[in-house]
C-alpha cells in the first residue's frame, strides 16, 4: 500500500480495495515503526487522523470524493493547524497551540484529506540540513549518516521512507527543492503568489512560497490543484484562475526549448551529479526537446543578495516573538527589556539569532543603502537575467544541488559553507519564479535532483515536463531499500 | 567588514536578543563571515538600477474598511504566557 502514489491510492479508495481508516492506520503504524530513527515528525496526530479518515470514508461511500478524499498527508510544522501544536521547529513555539488554521490546511481539510502529523524542519525554516531544529535533526532515509536537506527535511524524509504518500513544504531559498533532491522525491515551488501564505509562519515574506512534496509529478499536480488559488487574507496572493494542473501532463515535449545555464555546470558541481543531469538532458532530447546553452550572468551574486534580503525580512517578521502574547517566556523577568531579551535569547537557536542580527545590522541607520537597497538592486539584475533567458527558451534545467546529501556536521563551523549549498535554488526565489526538483539519479547511494525552472505561472508546463521524464525513466520509483 | 565585540553587543541590543558574554566572540566571527560573503555585492555597479522590493509587479490590493473578524479574545489569550482581566501581563513599566 505504501509504495503507491496519491493517484493510485485514490483509485484504491474508490474501488474499495481499502478504506481511508485502513490506509491511515497503515501509515500511522509505519511512522510508529520507523520514525524513532528518522525523526521526521515533530507531532503525530493519530486521533485527528483517524477521525478525518472516518469522515472521508463516509464521503467516499456517499460518492462525494475529491482527488484527495481520504488520502493521508504530512504537513510541515510551519502551517498553523487549529488546536494542534505548531512549533516551526523552535523552542520559541514549543508550547504554541495554533488558534487558527492556515489557508493551505483549510483547503486540504475541505478536500477531505487526512493529516498524519506535523513534520520536522529547520528552526523557522532557516537551514539546509535540518540540523537547526530544536527537536533534533531529521535523518536521510537513504543513509542515516546523511542530512535530509532543509528546511523541509521532515516532509522530504517521511515521503521517501513511505511514512506518508505526500507532504507539504515551504521554499524561501530552496527549502522544498533541495530536500526533495537529497531524499529522492519530487518537490515543486510554485510562482510567488500562487498559494496563500496566510497562516504559514513567515520567514522572508517576499520569498516564502508553499508547495507540494510528492513521489511524482502527477501527484504534485493533484496537490497543487488543491493548494493554489486566491485568498483575500494574503495581500500578495494573486487573483488568477487556477487551471487543472493534471490536464496537460500528457502533452508531447516535441519542440520544447530547454536552456542550460553555463553557470550551473561549472566549478563546485559534483561529477556524479553532473553525469546524472547530462543523462537526464539526453532523455529530453529523445523526447523531442532542443537544448541550448544560456547564461545567467549574475548567478554568483544570488547567495550574497539573499543573505541580506532574507535576514532583513526575518529580523522584522520574528520581532513578533517577544514573550508577551504567545510562545516562550523566560522565568522571572525583572523588567520589560529583560523579558524581551531573555525570552528571545533563550527561545531562539543560534542560526535564527545569527540571521536576526545580520538583518538588524543591514537595516540599521547608516547601513541601509549599502546593504538592503544594494541587494534589492542586484535582485532586479538577477530577475532580469531570467526574463532575458525566457525570451529564448521555455524552461531552464540544471542540477538542484551541487552535490548529493552531505553528512551531519560536514559543513563545519562556518555558516557560509552551508549557505553555498543553495547556490542553484536561491535565484529562483529572488525572481519569484516556479521551480521543480525531480529525482534524476543515485550517486554513491544518495539521490541527485534535476531542477526545472519555468516562467511566471507556468507550473502546468513544469509539471508536464517533469511528468514526461518520469514516463521514460524510473528514478522517481526508486527509494531507500529499507523502507520499500 | 569585520565586527568587533562591541558591534555584536550593540546589534544584539537592537534586536532585543540576550547573548551571553562567552558567545560574543563566536557571533562576531560568524557574522563577520556572513558580511564578507555579502560584500561581494560591492563589486557590481548598480547605478540607475531600480530596486526590486517584491517579485511581482503589482499594486497593493485594497479592501473596504469594514469589520470582518469577530472578537476571539478568549481563544487567543488562552495561549498567552500571562493574562489578567483580558490584559496581557508584563513586568511593571511605569514606577
Give me some keywords for this one.
heterodimer; A: 484 residues; alpha/beta; Amidase signature (AS) enzymes; eight-stranded mixed β-sheet; three-stranded mixed β-sheet; 15 helices; 38% helix; 13% strand; B: 95 residues; mainly alpha; Histone, subunit A; two-stranded antiparallel ribbon; 3 helices; 2 strands; flat
Q: Biggest sheet of chain A, in brief?
A: 8 strands, mixed
The parts of chain B where pLDDT drops under 50 for at least 5 residues are: none
Please name the CATH topology of the domain at 5-43 in chain B.
Histone, subunit A
Please estimate the helix content of chain B. 25-40%
Radius of gyration computed on alpha carbons of chain A: 21 Å
Q: Helicity level of chain A, as a percent range?
A: 25-40%
**Biggest sheet: strand arrangement of chain B:** 1-2
CATH class of chain A: Alpha Beta
Mean pLDDT of chain A: 97
Quaternary assembly: heterodimer
Quick one: how many beta strands of chain B? 2
Q: Indicate the mean pLDDT of chain B.
A: 93
| SS class of chain B | mainly alpha
Number of strands of chain A: 11
Give the N-to-C terminal Cα separation of chain A: 10 Å
How would a crystallographer describe the biggest sheet of chain B?
A: 2 strands, antiparallel
CATH homology superfamily name of chain A: Amidase signature (AS) domain
The CATH topology label of chain A is Amidase signature (AS) enzymes
List the helices and strands and how they pair.
The complex is a heterodimer of chains A (484) and B (95).
Chain A: H1 6-14, H2 20-38, E1 41-44, H3 46-61, E2 72-76, H4 103-111, E3 114-119, H5 153-160, E4 167-171, H6 177-183, E5 186-189, E6 209-214, H7 217-227, E7 257-261, H8 271-286, E8 290-294, H9 302-317, H10 336-347, H11 350-363, H12 368-389, E9 395-399, H13 415-419, H14 426-431, E10 435-443, E11 446-453, H15 459-472
Parallel strand pairs in A: 2-3, 7-8, 7-9
Antiparallel strand pairs in A: 1-3, 4-6, 5-6, 5-10, 9-11, 10-11
Chain B: H1 5-14, H2 24-38, H3 73-77, E1 83-84, E2 87-88
Antiparallel strand pairs in B: 1-2
Helix pairs in contact in B: 1-2
Amino acid at each position: 500500500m505504501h509504495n503507491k502514489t496519491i493517484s493510485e491510492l485514490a483509485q484504491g479508495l474508490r474501488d474499495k480495495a481499502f478504506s481511508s481508516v485502513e490506509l491511515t492506520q497503515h501509515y500511522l503504524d509505519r511512522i510508529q515503526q520507523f520514525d524513532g530513527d528518522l525523526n521526521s515528525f515533530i507531532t503525530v496526530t493519530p486521533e485527528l487522523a483517524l477521525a478525518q479518515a472516518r469522515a472521508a470514508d463516509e464521503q467516499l461511500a456517499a460518492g462525494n470524493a475529491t482527488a484527495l478524499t481520504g488520502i493521508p498527508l504530512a504537513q510541515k510544522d510551519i502551517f498553523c493547524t487549529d488546536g494542534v501544536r505548531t512549533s516551526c521547529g523552535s523552542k520559541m513555539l514549543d508550547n504554541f497551540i495554533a488558534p487558527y488554521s492556515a489557508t493551505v490546511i483549510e483547503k486540504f481539510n475541505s478536500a477531505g484529506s487526512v493529516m498524519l502529523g506535523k513534520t520536522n524542519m529547520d528552526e523557522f525554516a532557516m537551514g539546509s540540513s535540518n540540523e537547526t531544529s530544536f527537536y533534533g535533526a531529521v535523518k536521510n532515509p537513504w543513509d542515516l549518516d546523511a542530512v535530509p536537506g532543509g528546511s523541509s527535511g521532515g516532509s522530504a524524509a517521511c515521503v521517501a521512507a513511505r511514512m506518508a504518500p505526500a507532504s507539504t513544504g515551504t521554499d524561501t531559498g530552496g527549502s522544498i527543492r533541495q530536500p526533495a533532491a537529497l531524499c529522492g522525491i519530487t518537490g515543486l515551488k510554485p510562482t510567488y503568489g500562487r498559494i496563500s501564505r496566510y497562516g504559514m509562519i513567515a520567514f522572508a515574506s517576499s520569498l516564502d512560497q508553499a508547495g507540494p512534496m510528492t513521489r511524482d509529478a502527477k501527484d504534485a499536480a493533484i496537490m497543487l490543484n488543491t493548494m493554489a488559488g486566491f485568498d483575500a487574507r494574503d495581500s500578495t496572493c494573486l487573483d488568477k484562475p487556477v487551471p487543472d494542473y493534471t490536464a496537460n501532463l500528457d502533452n508531447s515535449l516535441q519542440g520544447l526549448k530547454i536552456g542550460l545555464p553555463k553557470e550551473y555546470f561549472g566549478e563546485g558541481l559534483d561529477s556524479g551529479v553532473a553525469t546524472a543531469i547530462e543523462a537526464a538532458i539526453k532523455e529530453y532530447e529523445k523526447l523531442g526537446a532542443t537544448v541550448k546553452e544560456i547564461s545567467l550572468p549574475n548567478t554568483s551574486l544570488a547567495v550574497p543578495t539573499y543573505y541580506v534580503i532574507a535576514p532583513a525580512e526575518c529580523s522584522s517578521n520574528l520581532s513578533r516573538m517577544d514573550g508577551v502574547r504567545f510562545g516562550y517566556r523566560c522565568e522571572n523577568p525583572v523588567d520589560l527589556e529583560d523579558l524581551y531579551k531573555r525570552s528571545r535569547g533563550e527561545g531562539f537557536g543560534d542560526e535564527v539569532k545569527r540571521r536576526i542580527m545580520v538583518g538588524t545590522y543591514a537595516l540599521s541607520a547608516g547601513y541601509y543603502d549599502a546593504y538592503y537597497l544594494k541587494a534589492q538592486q542586484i535582485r532586479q539584475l538577477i530577475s532580469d537575467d531570467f526574463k532575458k533567458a525566457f525570451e529564448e527558451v521555455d524552461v531552464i534545467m540544471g542540477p538542484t544541488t551541487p552535490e548529493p546529501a552531505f553528512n551531519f556536521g560536514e559543513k563545519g563551523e562556518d555558516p557560509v559553507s552551508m549557505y553555498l549549498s543553495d547556490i542553484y535554488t536561491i535565484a529562483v526565489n529572488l525572481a519569484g519564479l516556479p521551480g521543480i526538483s525531480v529525482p534524476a539519479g543515485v550517486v554513491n547511494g544518495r539521490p541527485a535532483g534535476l531542477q526545472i525552472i519555468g516562467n511566471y505561472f507556468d507550473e502546468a508546463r513544469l509539471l508536464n515536463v517533469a511528468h514526461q521524464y518520469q514516463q521514460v525513466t524510473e528514478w522517481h520509483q526508486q527509494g531507500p531499500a529499507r523502507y520499500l | 567588514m569585520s565586527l568587533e565585540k562591541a558591534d555584536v553587543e550593540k546589534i544584539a541590543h537592537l534586536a532585543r536578543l540576550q547573548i551571553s558574554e562567552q558567545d560574543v566572540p563566536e557571533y562576531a566571527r560568524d557574522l563577520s563571515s556572513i558580511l564578507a560573503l555579502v560584500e561581494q555585492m560591492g563589486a557590481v555597479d548598480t547605478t540607475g538600477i531600480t530596486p526590486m522590493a517584491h517579485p511581482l509587479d503589482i499594486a497593493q490590493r485594497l479592501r473596504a474598511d469594514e469589520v470582518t473578524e469577530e472578537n476571539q479574545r478568549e481563544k487567543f489569550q488562552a495561549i498567552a504566557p500571562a493574562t489578567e482581566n483580558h490584559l496581557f501581563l508584563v513586568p511593571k513599566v511605569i514606577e
